[in-house]
Structure formats: C-alpha cells, structure tokens
Design goal:
Blueprint: H1 5-11, H2 33-40, H3 79-82, H4 90-98, H5 100-103, H6 117-127
Length: about 140
C-alpha cells in the first residue's frame, strides 16, 4: 500500500510550506532546537534520541530527518508505516506530528499529535541535530 502523503497533507489543510518552503532532503530546518528539546519530553514515553538511544515502545529517532519511514533497524513497524513510501522531510514530519493517525492511518503511534506549529517545528529542529548514531549532526 502506497500512501500519497503529499495529497494527504493538502487534504488536511496544513500550511507547512510557509514554515519550510520547498521542504526536501537537505532543506534547512526552521525552529528552535532548545525549545524542541523541551517539547520532546512529551515524546520520551516512547522515543529516544541521542548517544545510546535504543528502540523502546517507538523507534529511536537518531537521524530521522530526511530518512525513509519504517527504516530503523530492529523496530517492528506497522504495515502502514513500512509500506508508506514516506520520507521524513520537514513537510512530512510537520504533518505527521500534527495528527499521526490522520496522516498515516494504521500507524501504531497512539500519540494524538502536537497542535501548535511552533512546537512541531522546534521538535524537528531538535531531532535534526542528531545523526544516525545519535551524535551531533554536521550543521
């Protein structure tokens, strides 16, 4: 099953392109990483990031920005996530973090989402700091 996430983003009326025009792999991330670290505390019930991060209820999020969905080794993803065809660029992350179940029906992520655009941008900026091993990524 392939989900046309760009159509889904448009269908749920997100204006994320104002935040990150032309968001694509390698696109600069807008947001405040320090504020994102604070918001990320809401995610820590299920996710880890940084040196030594491991999969828990959710996958470790090291290197997640601009990576294919469902690609963290050793994590048991839903079929919806594994087969989504999504790449976690800024646009996709903004949409998913706002309303995970709307963006990707069938995801196992039970979190209701982050309704504030600034919170989502800040979390993405925080996550973008980490490479796949959890080290500070080259900026």
């Amino acid at each position: 099953m392939h989900i046309d996430w760009k159509a889904r983003v448009g269908a749920i009326g997100l204006g994320v392109m104002m935040l990150a025009p032309g968001a694509a792999a390698g696109q600069e991330v807008s947001g405040d990483p320090a504020a994102g670290e604070q918001v990320f505390t809401r995610c820590m019930a299920c996710h880890r990031v940084g040196p030594g991060a491991v999969n828990t209820v959710g996958p470790a999020l090291n290197g997640v920005v601009n990576q294919p969905a469902g690609s963290v080794e050793g994590f048991n993803y839903s079929d919806a996530m594994k087969n989504s065809g999504v790449t976690w660029d800024v646009e996709a992350l903004m949409a998913f973090l706002e309303a995970p179940q709307q963006f990707l029906p069938g995801t196992r992520m039970a979190f209701p989402g982050l309704p504030e655009e600034a919170d989502r941008a800040n979390v993405i900026a925080y996550l973008a700091q980490f490479d796949e091993e959890g080290n500070p990524a080259a900026q």
